[in-house]
Write a structure and sequence with these properties.
The protein is α/β, with parallel strands linked by helices. It contains 7 helices and 17 strands. It has a 7-stranded mixed beta sheet with strand order 12-11-10-9-13-14-17, with helices on both faces. It is globular. The relative contact order is 0.15. The chain binds flavin-adenine dinucleotide and FE2/S2 (inorganic) cluster. The site of FE2/S2 (inorganic) cluster has 12 residues, from loops.
Length: 289
Amino acid sequence: MPATHAREGAGKNSSLPLYRPIPCTVDLVQDLTPSERLFRISREDAQPFGHQPGQFVQVSMLGVGEAPISVSSSPTRGPHLDLGIRRAGELTGLMHTALKPGDRVGIRGPFGTCFDVDTMRGQDLVLIAGGCGLAPMRALIQYCEDRRGDFGNVTVLCGARTPQDLLYKDDLAAWMRSPQLDCRCTVDEVPPGQKWTGDVGVITTLIPPLEIVPDRTTAVIVGPPVMYRFVISHLKDKGLDCRRMIVSLERHMKCGVGKCGHCTIEHLYCCLDGPVFRLDQVIGLRGAI
Ligand SMILES: Cc1cc2nc3c(=O)[nH]c(=O)nc-3n(C[C@H](O)[C@H](O)[C@H](O)COP(=O)(O)OP(=O)(O)OC[C@H]3O[C@@H](n4cnc5c(N)ncnc54)[C@H](O)[C@@H]3O)c2cc1C
Ligand code: FES
């Protein structure tokens, strides 16, 4: 059940250039948290980007630079890309302060491996997203909602530091109401002044109560580096093998296409061989998990 290489699409199709940004327009800008915003982007020629859940794109602003950003929307929702972007530095800071609907940005990609929905077909899924991990996971959750008959039970576990830090709160509320998904959400703490009626505790506290049938379950894990080791350990306690766990790893990236070497994990290029890996492909590699 390997992570699929969807990157061939970028090379084969001349409309998805490796090096030349595609001219795009910002359709929508929306606050998600005090430091994260949703940017909905469409190609100026109205064509789809050809992405799969789990892939990333390189977003550029003229004269500033570019940054790798995960796609937060499923291709089943239309030709646009939703990007949930944290204000981190020069480019993302300018996107937050300056970009408004109608403005232009460049997009290279989509790049990297994706969550292999074909090999997940018929499986029960446990989708575990911590913090910013909900950015790429939202694309997979939307895909599962739109192709619900393709999968068995779909469980979504989400965690954030505080209620305010939760991304895509409206989606989370809808997923928790949905009879199609079993969505559970927790926060590490509730600071004074923030409202929260749900669970409090780290995301791993949501795993022990789950009923998992190991030989028909695939788990997908995306979150901050500190989360992986603990989540993996809890899933192993449930009987899940490394080959049934999919992770998405984030590394510093520059080119996004296997040329600069910034993103290596031993012999692997995170931009080409990842960011989505089956756990047994990376578990023994230094610095991977
Ligand atoms: C595959 C992939 C997917 C990503 N998806 C998202 C996403 O969906 N939403 C989002 O907000 N961010 C995402 N990031 C992180 C994002 O790329 C960086 O925050 C961004 O490049 C910062 O650009 P900047 O010019 O604003 O900051 P800079 O001015 O370049 O740097 C600001 C600070 O951010 C740090 N930084 C830059 N890149 C990274 C990185 N990859 N990891 C950790 N720290 C970094 C720098 O070291 C510096 O301290 C992703 C990164 C990768 C590799
Ligand atoms: S980002 Fe340049 S090789 Fe991966």
